[in-house]
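Extended Data, panel c. Modelled sequence:
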Amino acid sequence: MEISKGLKKLANSFAKQDFHLYIVGGFVRDILLGLNPEDIDIASNMPIDKVMEICSTLKFDCKIINKTLGTLQIKNSKECFEYTRFRTESYTSGHSPSSVKFVDDLSIDALRRDLTINSIYYDITSDQIIDPLGGLKDLNKHRICTSNQPDITLRDDGLRILRVIRFASTYNFKIQRDTAKALKCFRTNLKSISKERILNELKLLTVADLKFENPNTIFWDSLNKLELLPLIFNHSLHTIKKLSKKDKNIFYKLPENLRLTGFYLAVLKNFGKHYMKPAHLKFSINTLFGLEGIRESSEIIRLLEKLYLIYQNIEHDVDILNASINYLGLADDNRMLIHMYLSEQAKERLDSNIQLVRGKNLPLSVHDLDVTAQDLIDVRIDKRYIGQILSTLYNQVIEMKIPNKNIALINTAKNINQTFLDIIKNKRSN
């Protein structure tokens, strides 16, 4: 295995003190699969204070990530490694262990890891693969197995349920029978996992099959088979259960940058079933994706609300002209996303209204009106009302009550302005 000079130098320093330094996890797994590995995780039974002394001697930057777990970040000028001391763990609930004990035996350390394919070690100094749990066999058989007994591994940490699915999807591996049974049995352990961690996993899961170009639908199928959506989005089973086959086919045609948003739209479709009024839609989005749900960013939540409102108005033929205008105002990617989820009838309605918008030269926003705020100021429109008047003009043009022509817009603006002034005058006289 090809190793950098810096890492060999570190391993040699370990060896001088009678310790072996190992690479473990993803780097070893991906090298063995002939793929390009990313982060390098290293491990040994050396206490972290001794590791820090070695790093100081070698002039490597070293800082403690978690002293209780025995983890360090080690950097040299070109590389970054995460070091973990061999340990065994016990859990009560949640993702973090309730107690940790450091050990010298590599095979014991292997058992606390999630999967056998992530429990293969490479001894840097001796240039040997150490495989205490049969991970190599599982790699060759394209099989996902837990490192320990499935009920122990999945009971200990509910997040591993999603990680099993992610690794299966990433490599298009089959989940071993006992592991699959345990996924179903311990699925409710997801409730004890923080929404932030679940959100991070979701972001990886939606694009897992794209990472090494292994087309499969394991992510989607597992969500449905294990009925994970209510657990992920913190909602009752009768309101959010399974995603449709039609939406699955659409989802797997989406490019990487649209996968997450596309998944969220599919969840909303499943949750809403029918047309949702704006207030109900806002409530539903906040319930699923806000503080009560997976705690997505406010930016994503605003985008979802905008996209889904446009989608459902076109799909259900509600305020279709305005929805078509808003659709045209979207970025190309978001237009494509909505268009893919629309039914054929809705696409026909959309196409017809787009032709109308373009044929009548209807504006896509206030900024597309054939009049500006300065034009209104120049004809002595009260500055206090300009924003409101522009919005009114836009709505009247969209409703095709007036043309999008400068003279017509200015004359209408004057009439609206005079109406405002008359209302104020009457209030004062009363």
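The CA atoms of residues 397 and 403 lie 6 Å apart. This feature is highlighted in the accompanying rendering.
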